[in-house]
Amino acid sequence: MIKLIASDIDGTLVPDGTAEIDPRMFDVIKKLKECGIIYVGASGRQFASMARLFAPVCEDIYYITEGGTVVRDTKRVYAKSVINRKDLFEMVADIKKLKDCDIMLSGLDTAYCEDKSEMFYWMRDSYRFNIEVVGDFESHIKEDIVKLSIYHKDNAEAIVNEWFTDKWKDKFKIASAGIMWMDVVNPDADKGSSLQALQKILGITKEETMAFGDNLNDLGLLAAAEESYAIGSARDEIKAVAKHIAPPLKEYGETEVLLQLLETL
After folding, report:
1. What whole-number distance in Å separates Cα of residue 46 and Cα of residue 21?
2. Which residue of 16, 163, 173, 236 has the lowest C-beta tally within 10 Å?
3. What is the CA angle 36-238-66, rounded to 5?
4. How far apart are CA 198 and CA 136, in angstroms?
């Protein structure tokens, strides 16, 4: 029996960079909880953004945030993975050599950028992030950073893969989080390892887990679940490894699968 459901957010549950969640999901999550099934959002987003998205049920779910670097609920942080500061600022210097790319650094509750760029306003107004402009990162960032994000308005993956990925791939995990984003985290930190950590905390097995995803940074998430679903609009690489294909996002594919699950309970 399924006891835990983990879902990516952007591209799977909502269109990238929006809060356009199917309102039926809130009732679905409540009914799942009544049936003893735990729901966890697993995203590159920060906790504040996710909690706002799931506001009606924010106290009822768990969170895997910042690309799998933090495991928490609304009251407690269970685990986090911090990037070494020396490597962090060396990568920042390299990213500044990439054409038309912007940088966001993620702490536990706040994201940081160096100026009020297009990215800043998008993160603040669409993703509803807690984000601060700090000027030079190295001079002003004091807290632990769990994720580095590289933003380009329409071609992040290709630009980052020109040379940055080859230089840093042996030290860090670098994965696409959509056409505008490449996320950099510690090699042992991803949605999959965080889901496994949560499974251990909750005493739930892979066989009792269902997961949904759409992009390359969801590979680990799907691998940690026996009942894995690629959303119908997912990348082909995700469809190739998923056990099932759900309807596409525009047809509220995840909601439909979970409604079918509830009918069987």
Report:
1. 17
2. 236
3. 65
4. 36
Find all residues with CB under 8 Å of 230, minimum gap 6, and list them. 212, 213, 214, 222, 238, 239, 241, 242, 244, 245, 246
Q: How many helices, marked H, and strands, marked E, lie in the chain?
A: 11, 14
Residue 103 C-alpha from the chain's centroid: 17
67 neighbors 189 (Cβ within 8 angstroms): yes
Query: Which tokens in the block code for residue 159?
Result: 């630009």
How far, in Å, CA of 9 to CA of 71, rounded? 15
Q: What are phi and psi of 187, to 5 degrees?
A: -65, -25
Tell whether pTM > 0.85.
yes
Read off the amino acid at residue 57.
Answer: V
Q: How far apart are the first and last CA of the chain?
A: 9
40, amino acid identity: V
What parts of the chain have a pLDDT lower than 50? Answer: none
The two tokens of residue 20 are 């356009």
Instruction: Return the number of other C-beta atoms located less than 10 Å from residue 228's C-beta.
Output: 23
